[in-house]
UniProtKB/TrEMBL annotation:
UniProt domain Phosphotransferase system EIIB component type 2/3: residue ranges: 12-88
Molecular function in Gene Ontology: protein-N(PI)-phosphohistidine-fructose phosphotransferase system transporter activity; protein-phosphocysteine-sugar phosphotransferase activity
A Pfam short name: PTS_IIB
Protein name: Hypothetical pts system II component n-terminal and c-terminal truncated transmembrane protein
Superkingdom to which the source organism belongs: Bacteria
Gene name linked to the record: hrsA
GO cellular component assignments: plasma membrane
InterPro entries listed in its UniProt record: Bacterial_PTS_Sugar_Transport, PTS_EIIB-like_sf, PTS_EIIB_2/3, PTS_IIB_fruc
Keyword Phosphoprotein: yes
GO BP, one annotated term: phosphoenolpyruvate-dependent sugar phosphotransferase system
Keywords carried by this UniProt record: Membrane, Phosphoprotein, Phosphotransferase system, Sugar transport, Transferase, Transmembrane, Transport
Length: 204
């Protein structure tokens, strides 16, 4: 749940109470402006039959849940019809033959093939998102350099041969400074935003 308002907290309580009534182990992760509360671990995710997302906006780090069935509902739905939510959940939940319910005392992550696969996929998606975000911020640099070079070409064509001869050095210098400098800046700008996005992901 991506907020900690009273409505969301009541919804969390309804989900927890209904799960306990039906005999299910449940862990509720809350997301808000202050970060995560009770964040789901890889052990929690690998041993979960289903993930219920009660949110009206996109949640953070959804790439963690690549291998688990997901039921998305509005924030208000657990408040008004929590039984209906669980009826939908039971229809799509996955069976787990070697399920281990994590406890608060369980502190050592289980190193197995399924855990590594889940971790690798989550890291791959996080890296992809960071790269794409970096590229999106680097695009204006590319456009600026190309636009300046195109503008110089247009000016030269309009002004004619005599103007080009008279101001050739100035035009070439501006073209080199604008085009080449922005091209040189492209790599560090791209790298900076990729590192920044990856750092933000690791902080949550």
């Amino acid at each position: 749940m991506p907020s900690w308002s009273s409505t969301h907290l009541y919804g969390c309580k309804k989900i927890e109470d209904e799960a306990k009534k039906l005999g299910y182990a449940v862990k509720v992760e809350k997301q808000g402006a202050n970060g995560y509360e009770d964040k789901l671990t890889l052990e929690d995710i690998s041993n979960a039959n289903i993930l219920i997302i009660a949110a009206d906006v996109a949640i953070g780090e959804q790439e963690r849940f690549v291998d688990i069935p997901i039921l998305k509902v509005a924030v208000s739905e657990p408040l008004h019809d929590v039984e209906g939510v669980f009826q939908k959940a039971t229809q799509i939940m996955r069976p787990l033959s070697n399920q281990q319910i994590p406890t608060k005392e369980f502190k050592k992550e289980k190193k197995e093939k399924g855990w590594f696969k889940l971790y690798f996929k989550a890291c791959a998606v996080s890296l992809k998102n960071a790269v794409l975000t970096g590229i999106s911020y680097a695009v204006p640099v590319i456009v600026a350099g190309t636009a300046i070079q195109a503008l110089i070409t247009i000016i030269a064509q309009i002004a004619g041969v005599d103007y080009i001869k008279k101001h050739a050095n100035w035009l070439n210098t501006l073209s080199d400074v604008a085009g080449k400098s922005l091209s040189i800046l492209l790599a560090p700008v791209l790298a900076d935003y990729i590192v920044h996005m990856q750092w933000q992901i690791n902080q949550v």
